[in-house]
Design a protein that fits this description.
217 residues; seven-stranded parallel β-sheet; globular
């Protein structure tokens, strides 16, 4: 947040991206790599030309294996962000709206930009546990994702109650739903096969959602 306020988020993004790509060399060749991208990076011409494609190819990945997570928390010049995001999508990269429901720019961004994933912010799920308005926001995000044919990823699942809430909210969705959070497994310094390592409880087996594990870099 501080980096965004002082206009340096794109520099922080650049350093993090370098660490992510370096660690990506240890992943299986068919892995899907999610990379956080601040709107400020898209606004500062960080990905001019084929620079991002070159960086991805250098570590043995292809653009279709990379999902760029654009957060809705940050404020940038939306028309430029949308234009650059569309260009990157045309080059083969997938797009995700990160922290969905946490800010004010998400709906406006979704109205102008097709994404492949919508990641629902943990705070949305927390509010939905005890507040009618929160449940309405959650239902609205799921409905938008359904209309866009975008996969839902619920973030910050920390207990059975949160998992049950998401499961019920997505029960009638025809779009795949994925989960991530400490309840399912903490970030690991090394690649871990989710199917082999996750402790799957009975209530998780009944869930239509899949596990989305994080790799800490």
């Amino acid at each position: 947040d501080i980096a965004e306020r002082i206009g340096k988020a794109y520099e922080l993004d650049r350093n993090c991206r370098g660490a992510v790509f370096a660690k990506a060399r240890t992943l299986p060749p068919d892995a899907l790599l999610f990379v956080n991208v601040s709107p400020q990076s898209l606004d500062h011409d960080e990905f001019a030309g084929n620079s991002l494609i070159d960086a991805v190819l250098a570590v043995g990945f292809s653009p279709k294996q990379v999902v760029l997570e654009i957060t809705e928390r940050s404020i940038a010049r939306l028309p430029i962000v949308v234009r650059e995001a569309k260009r990157l999508r045309s080059l083969g990269f997938a797009l995700a709206l990160d922290d969905g429901g946490s800010g004010n720019s998400g709906l406006e961004m979704l109205s102008q930009l097709a994404v492949d994933y919508v990641k629902i912010d943990r705070e949305v799920i927390v509010r939905a546990q005890s507040d009618v308005g929160g449940r309405a926001v959650l239902a609205g995000i799921i409905a938008i994702a359904q209309e866009m044919n975008a996969q839902i990823i619920a973030e910050g699942i920390e207990d059975t109650e949160m998992l049950e809430l998401v499961r019920n909210a997505t029960r009638w969705s025809t779009i795949p739903c994925a989960l991530q959070g400490y309840y399912l497994g903490r970030p690991s310094a090394d690649f871990v096969d989710a199917v082999q390592a996750a402790i799957i409880k009975d209530d998780q087996r009944r869930s239509p959602c899949t596990v989305h594990r994080a790799l800490r870099v």
